Amino acid sequence: MLVFNAQCICASKPVIVHTQYGDVLGYQTDSARVFYGIPFARPPIGTL
Questions:
Q1: Burial 27-46 (b: 16+ CB within 10 A, else e)
Q2: Is position 8 within any domain?
């Protein structure tokens, strides 16, 4: 199953989105654009 998923990602069209924080690389599927590894918040520092 893992090999099948890897083939699907490789066969998809790469997409680069330019943001004010830098470029983000993802890929286009038939129904969506997919991006991984985007940080969305600063980690907590100190006691909570």
A1: beeeeeeeeeeeeeeeeeee
A2: no
Give the C-alpha separation, 42 to 25, whole Å.
Answer: 21
The 3-class SS string of 1-48 reads CHHHHHHHHHHCEEEEEEECCEEEEEEECCCCEEECCCCCCCCCCCCC
Domain count, the chain: 1
Please check the confidence at residue 1 and state whether its pLDDT lies above 60: no
pTM above threshold 0.85: no
Task: Tell me if 26 is assigned to some domain.
Answer: yes
